[in-house]
Amino acid sequence: MNGRTHVVRATPDTPLLYVLRDELELDGPKFGCGLAQCGACTVIVKGQATRSCVLPVAAVDSAVTTLEGLGTPARPHPVQRAFIAEQAAQCGYCTSGMVVAAAALLAQHRAPTDAQIHQALEGNLCRCGSHLRIVRAVKRAAGERA
C-alpha cells in the first residue's frame, strides 16, 4: 500500500475500501455507492484505476496506490498540483477518485487526447458539475509532464 507492506486482519471477502479506511486509516478513497459506479473509491492496482469498494482484499496481489501515495503536501503529484491550479473541486467528495483515475491515465498516456481523458474519467461522478475544470486539470498535468 503506497510503497509499504501491511498485514491486515480483514476476512478475504472484505472490500479493499473497508481495509483502506478502517484498518489502514486512509482518508483518500471514499465510500460513495458501494457498487463501483461513482468512482469515489478509486485506487491504482497494476497501473489501472480500480474501484476498491467491490474488490475483495483477497484479490489484491500487487501494489496499491491511493491518493495518499501519489504525492505529499510538500511535493504534490502533477495531477494534484493541476487540480489545485484549476480549482477542479467544489464539494471535493469525488476529487480523490478523479485525481487517482487521472494519475493512472497519465502513467499510461503522457499526452492523452480529449477522448482518452473523457473515457478515463467517465466512471467518476461529480454531482457539483466540476467536469470542465477537472478535464482542464488533467490537460494541465499532462502538459507539466511532457
Please indicate the percent range of residues in DSSP E strands (runs of 2 or more): 5-15%
Helix content: 25-40%
Question: Mean pLDDT, as a whole number?
Answer: 96
Shape by Cα distribution: globular
Number of helices: 6
**Could you state the CATH homologous superfamily of the largest domain?**
[2Fe-2S]-binding domain
Q: Which residue ranges are poorly predicted, with pLDDT under 50 across at least 5 consecutive positions?
A: none
Query: Order of strands side by side in the largest beta sheet?
Result: 2-1-3
List the secondary-structure elements in sequence, H or E.
HEEEHHHHH
Descriptive overview:
- The chain is mainly alpha-helical.
- The protein has two domains: 54 residues, Ubiquitin-like (UB roll); 76 residues, [2Fe-2S]-binding domain (DNA polymerase, domain 1).
- The protein is built from six helices and three strands, in the order αβββααααα.
- A three-stranded antiparallel β-sheet has the order 2-1-3.
- Strand 1 and strand 2 form a beta hairpin.
- Helix 3 packs across helix 4, helix 3 crosses helix 6 and helix 4 packs across helix 5.
- The longest helix is centred in the C-terminal third of the chain and has 15 residues.
- It is globular, with a radius of gyration of 14 Å.
Show the helix and strand layout.
Elements: H1 16-23, E1 42-45, E2 48-51, E3 64-65, H2 67-70, H3 78-85, H4 95-108, H5 114-121, H6 131-145
Antiparallel strand pairs: 1-2, 1-3
Helix pairs in contact: 3-4, 3-6, 4-5, 4-6
